[in-house]
Amino acid sequence: MAARFLETAEHFADRPALVLPGREPVSYAELAGRVNAVRELLQVEGIQPDTVVGVAMEDPAEWVPALLAVLAEGAVYLVLDLRVPEARLRGQVEDSTAAWTLCSPGTESRVAALAVTGMRMVRASSVTGTGVRRSVVSRTADSVAFLAYTSGSTGAPKGVAIRHANILHEVAVHTATLGLSPDDRLTGLYPPSTVGCTRDLYAALLCGASVSFFPFRDLGFAALRDWMRDHRLTRYHSVPPIFRELVQELGPGEMLPDLRTVFLAGDRVAWSDLDLFKNHTGHGCRFYTGIGTSETSSLYAHGFVEPDEPRDGPILPSGIAVPGVTLRLLDASGNPAACGEPGEIVVEGRWLAAGYWRRDLRAPHPFPETPGSGGDRRHRTGDHATLDRQGRLLFQGRRDQQVKILGNRIDLSEVDLHLRRVPGVREVAVHLIAGQGDQTPAQLTAFMSWKEGALPLSEIRRHLLLHLPAPAVPTRFHWLPEFPRLANGKLDSRELGRIAASGSPVAEHHPNQSAGAPETPAQRRMAQLWRDSLGVSECGIHDSFFALGGQSLTAMKLLARVRAVFPGEVTMRMLFDAPTVAGLLDRMGNPEWTTIPPSDRSSLKPPGGPDPDLTASRDTPSLALASHAQERLWFLDALEPNRTAYVMPDAVL
């Protein structure tokens, strides 16, 4: 992988490789120089081939060269996503036996808090090298390149060992299928710890194209829309919910004219996504989708879907097998599924991952060889599907305990495990309750019974957030005196679904406490932000954000709006701990809102700036309407006041 990149960098030295907000693009030559500098640091540390090196950085200008440097030294990288709970990260570091972790000044304290014995932190930001070009440490295509940790039912997620060959095959398929060229500009919207990011990053860097990393979680979807237009991005890739939120920022008939491909995967793709695509892209743009797992090193099926093709059913097809892969649908007995009946998807071929890190000696290989195949291996995905008339997969869901929420693969049994560790719990069941259409996402729902009194929801969520990522924390809870059961003693899942659909979830406030009408200006303004984000007509100051239909993606939108209106810090954890208007304002120190509604863009101002004239209207001649670029700069300054990233010290004549 590293050798291929360095060859590309030499050929396209002056072309942009990384495009980041507020900075000059990083050229291929600059990126290769940074890779070389980090390599020198790794050599000083004595890092050997096939050892695991953690990478805990948040700036793509730092973590991209770090990943490539680790590969160039023949080592294995593990990206540590610092947004997930410390206990989970600590488990990944300990399981991987990573002896070094590359960090930056902004992440050093969080890495140190993991307190992993024997792990050495190495600050690898802003390093400079000698400029001497070094040959890449020799590795074979079957050598492990990086570890991708997946959800596990034991509470200890497993590390999937992805080989260099897996990445090269994925990049080759992606490049050939989409027709990527050095003139393309790709989005970078996936976290670096995911295989989705791996595809976007290396597909760009191995063909001379550029990849644009944009922090939409911080800057919002309107800023993402403007970024894509300003930089004329040609290839879009995200999970479907992110695409839906982006399109919400486009007016009727408003287009993203430079796009040549919209690629949606990682969660269930709907026909309505294809309609959104058709309404906001040009005639030369194509809609691409697929389905895959970490164990298959990303996609195992893919294909284009045409906007005007016949729609034979409610499920949008996920495509056919990628080149080099054979797909089979098997029933519960391991025999080929009957025509028209769903079967488990079994993937066979050379391009499966190497296995689960440090587990193959203790258990049978997870991907056994297929008899008579000449070395091909097979993986039972747990995904179930049928075939349409063209032989394309129609994804039906999973029959085990794993589901996908907003692109995150979540093991329900792991959520169940941590709920059972809550003090006082007697019985637990966790279900994914289907949403009503594409605009109402599925919600993770927990049913619980208690030995004595129930704990407050804020304490339960706080406990879960210590061990689980935010999308894995249930958004709705139901207290049951007894669980419904079938005659054979098994849990009656159908009855639980009926309870979830007809019953009211547990409220965040005491049963004797009313929802409460907003009284203060801050409460009224905050309640309006909640109504706008949730799409509801009523919201009391004690109504639960989650009971009103909120989930992690809605929370991200809400927090972006709150940051633009209220001074002070507000985080996702604060919302999970106090998910009511009154509770969140209390956690923020009961600030007074300082801006007028966002619809009046003429009044946008950074915190600490002069107060706007609240009596002025949009038609006031003395006030000019802020442009999109000005609004973005205001927002960036509101996020990080007094930064000089956008200050030009020299004049151009």
Number of helices: 19
The termini sit apart by: 44 Å
Mean pLDDT: 83
Beta percentage is: 15-25%
Largest sheet: 5 strands, mixed
Enumerate the spans where pLDDT stays under 50 for 5 or more consecutive residues.
Answer: 509-513, 596-622
Strand order of the largest sheet: 11-12-13-14-15
Shape, principal axes of CA atoms: globular
Alpha carbon gyration radius: 25 Å
Find the structural class using helix and strand composition.
Answer: alpha/beta
Percent helix range? 25-40%
Number of strands: 25
Description of the structure:
It is a single chain. 30% of the residues lie in helices and 20% in strands. It has 19 helices and 25 strands. The strands form seven sheets. It has a five-stranded mixed β-sheet. It is globular and about 65 Å long. The two termini are 44 Å apart.
In short:
It is built from 19 helices and 25 strands. It is 30% helix and 20% strand. With 653 residues, the protein is of the alpha/beta class.
Secondary-structure map with pairings?
Elements: H1 2-11, E1 16-19, E2 26-27, H2 28-45, E3 52-56, H3 60-72, E4 76-79, H4 86-96, E5 100-103, H5 108-112, E6 120-123, E7 144-150, E8 158-163, H6 164-178, E9 185-188, H7 195-205, E10 210-213, H8 216-219, H9 221-230, E11 235-238, H10 240-248, E12 261-264, H11 271-280, E13 286-293, E14 298-305, E15 320-321, E16 325-330, E17 343-349, E18 355-356, E19 377-387, E20 393-398, E21 402-405, E22 408-411, H12 412-420, E23 425-433, E24 443-450, H13 457-465, E25 476-479, H14 493-502, H15 521-534, H16 552-565, H17 572-577, H18 581-587, H19 628-639
Parallel strand pairs: 1-10, 3-4, 3-5, 5-6, 9-10, 11-12, 12-13, 24-25
Antiparallel strand pairs: 1-2, 7-8, 8-18, 13-14, 14-15, 16-17, 17-19, 19-20, 21-22, 23-24
Helix pairs in contact: 1-2, 2-3, 6-7, 9-10, 10-11, 15-16
